[in-house]
Amino acid sequence: MTTQPSSFILSLPKAELHLHLEGTVDPATLSELSRRHCTPLAADNNRYTNVEDSGRVLSEDDVRALYSYTDFVGFLMAFKAVTERLRTPEDYELITYRMMQKLAAQGVVHAEVFVSVGVLFWRGHPIDPLFEGMEAGRLRGERDFGMTLYWIFDAVRNFGAEEALKVAKKAVEYRERNVIGFGIGGDERRGAPEEFRDAYRYAREHGLRTSCHAGETTGPESISGALDALHTERLGHALSLQQSPELLQRVVREQVPLELCIASNQRTGCCPRIEDHPVRKYFDAGAMITLNTDDPEMFQTSLAHEYQLAQDVHGFSEGELRQLAMNSIRASWLPDERKSELLKRY
Ligand SMILES: [Zn+2]
Fold this sequence. Notes:
CATH topology: TIM Barrel
Bound molecules: zinc ion
């Protein structure tokens, strides 16, 4: 991170709507986890696990090296190294609590956080006890930091439609326990939105809210597919929306909330230069945009830093930043009364 976020930015009551729990693990925490788990994962149910690596103790410098990739594949490798070291309910409690501590310090009052339940299924990890750990961390974090948090269960496109439906079912099972939504991430090139109709329909019909990573690494057809076939309520990234004026007009007309992640798009190489990011273009067109971090520790960013980037690189005024922060509250899935309470703080 280059500049320190201004006190104005820190003081805005903000919501973070596109954030992966596994991407909030900082170097000190990952190093600690690697000491807790210095045995390799069993190879049989982890076909893609590098057994050598999964049992290695990492220093904080090792983790920093791991996090300094320059492309999407490097990012996926780092993500894998983290998930290999998340094994017990206590691990999940620890990372949830530390995530909330960092969010609250930036003026975040509410977060909607993706958990890669698709990865847990794939690794054969038992989800129920791990979810108890997350919930223990959340309850402690809400009490200590005065913020709120909802979970979104995230499926991985690469694992296919059936696996995604399993994740949607798990999310529905926990609907009364603070799981608000369902989404899909992973490699867009290996799973068109149309393949995931059943999972989204199931989630919707059972009262879950929906978000979809779309147009991050592929063209606008991925975004229109997410809207038409999946009826997603929010769109993650939507970087390639800039390639289709008609689709942009539609997203503006329908006020579909966009979960933009500027630093993430630059670090994965999807948008090589921050100044080329379409955030300003979308805002000027009247789109309902929100700023988010995606995987803050892996992208060396924070929510406050994203606001600072919008101001420094894209010329957003303080009034416009205030509007973005208010958008984040409005586009959240909090109850209406809570939203108006938070918006009154402006
Ligand atoms: Zn994401």
